[in-house]
Design goal:
The chain is mainly alpha-helical. 71% of the residues lie in helices and 4% in strands. A hairpin with a 4-residue loop joins strand 1 and strand 2.
């Protein structure tokens, strides 16, 4: 992860540095890294928003008995010490969560558009991951709302100068359900995370390219008919 240091904003602080970075490909690589990280965070908010919406549409508020059963199941399967109140929710609370995740999803979408993409490109990507099977991105989908979002947030903060390296590295941990603690990532886990982000970026780029091609084709058709 130390390789990220050359892509920090401080290394692009003036126009001469930007030109030099553009000449050797650093600028293009930095933009790809940022888009990949933002996609990970954006999808996490989208997925949670859809989860809360589905709960709201199907359940509304739940009962204490239902919460108690959920608590017992989680304690048995994951060796946790949860309480029924941890699983008790009300319709208003779920509505608030939907709105909260939507706002963060919308904000992250707008950040990605600064790299030359359209919001519809991001929306299409999130819908594809959430509602379709994408080969090579099943693990990305599972991890995005837990570990991957945490890693990506930490990496973004480091790249923009809000965290130092040790603070960022301290966020690259995983949850050990048996010991109920955080443990440092192994090298293979970091490699898996990087590969998954790269695959997500390639999928997103493919979606954006297809949408751009269709847009150009439609415009040519309109101009020809006129």
């Amino acid at each position: 992860m130390k390789a990220l240091s050359k892509y920090r904003f401080e290394n692009f602080s003036d126009i001469n540095k930007v030109r030099k970075a553009g000449e050797n490909g650093l600028l293009r690589k930095r933009n790809r890294i940022f888009v990949s990280l933002f996609l990970s965070v954006c999808y996490a908010h989208f997925s949670r928003m859809e989860l809360y919406r589905s709960v709201l549409n199907k359940e509304g508020s739940n009962t204490y008995d239902e919460s108690e059963k959920m608590s017992d199941s989680f304690n048995y399967i994951f060796n946790l010490e949860s309480k029924p109140s941890d699983f008790l929710f009300h319709e208003d609370e779920i509505c608030d969560k939907v709105i909260y995740e939507y706002r963060l999803y919308k904000k992250t979408k707008s950040l990605i558009t600064r790299f030359g993409y359209e919001e519809q490109d991001v929306e299409a990507f999130c819908h594809k991951i959430e509602f379709s099977y994408v080969k090579g991105l099943v693990y990305f989908k599972i991890q995005s709302t837990t570990h991957y979002e945490m890693y990506s947030d930490a990496a973004i903060s480091y790249l923009v100068g809000m965290k130092n390296y040790s603070d960022m590295a301290g966020r690259f941990v995983k949850i050990n359900l048996l010991s109920k603690s955080f443990v440092p990532l192994e090298r293979k886990d970091v490699i898996r995370y990087i590969k998954d982000l790269s695959k997500a970026y390639e999928t997103f780029q493919s979606i954006a390219t297809i949408r751009l091609y269709r847009k150009i084709k439609r415009e040519k058709s309109i101009n020809f008919n006129n």
